[in-house]
């Protein structure tokens, strides 16, 4: 099954030292171009998450995560529409997005207790 990785979920391996790539290894991992753009903006900044975003971008390349282009400009809308169209799960910790995904009956994977992944896998 496909698992669509949201921007904040791509930061999990660096922030919380949870190897999402091993945990989700049985699934096809993808992300959207808009998520990559968000990470690049964070990486270019001077904030505390800039180094985290840079490592996350390197991991995406290293792990061979498929990057999909979408027409939508709003990332959350693009995630919802892609997940519905391609019947895939979404990995995210974004509360607002999770609520919308649930209302659209889209399966979710999230980080719990900063230690492990849970969801409808």
Which consecutive residue ranges, at least 5 long each, have pLDDT under 50?
Answer: none
Average pLDDT metric: 93
C-alpha-based Rg, rounded: 13 Å
CATH topology: Rossmann fold
> Shape, please?
globular
CATH architecture: 3-Layer(aba) Sandwich
Number of domains: 1
The counted number of beta strands is 6
Strand content: 15-25%
Task: Write a concise keyword list for the protein shown above.
alpha/beta; single chain; Rossmann fold; 7 helices; six-stranded mixed β-sheet; 6 strands
Report on this structure.
The chain has 121 residues and is an alpha/beta fold. The protein has a single domain, classed as Rossmann fold (3-Layer(aba) Sandwich), CATH 3.40.50. The chain has seven helices and six strands. Strands 3-2-1-4-5-6 form a six-stranded mixed β-sheet. A hairpin with a 3-residue loop joins strand 5 (108-112) and strand 6. Helix 4 (33-44) packs across helix 5. The protein is globular. The termini are close together. The model has no long low-confidence stretch (mean pLDDT 93).
């Amino acid at each position: 099954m496909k698992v669509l990785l949201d921007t904040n979920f791509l930061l999990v391996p660096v922030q919380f030292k949870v190897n999402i790539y091993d945990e989700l290894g049985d699934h096809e991992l993808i992300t959207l171009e808009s998520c990559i753009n968000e990470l690049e903006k964070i990486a270019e900044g001077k904030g505390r998450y800039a180094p985290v975003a840079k490592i996350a971008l390197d991991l995406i390349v290293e792990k061979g995560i498929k990057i999909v282009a979408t027409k939508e400009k709003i990332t959350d809308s693009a995630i919802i529409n892609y997940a519905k169209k391609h019947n895939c799960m979404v990995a995210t910790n974004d509360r607002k997005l999770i609520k919308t995904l649930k209302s659209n009956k889209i399966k979710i994977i999230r980080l719990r207790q900063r230690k492990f992944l849970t969801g409808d896998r």
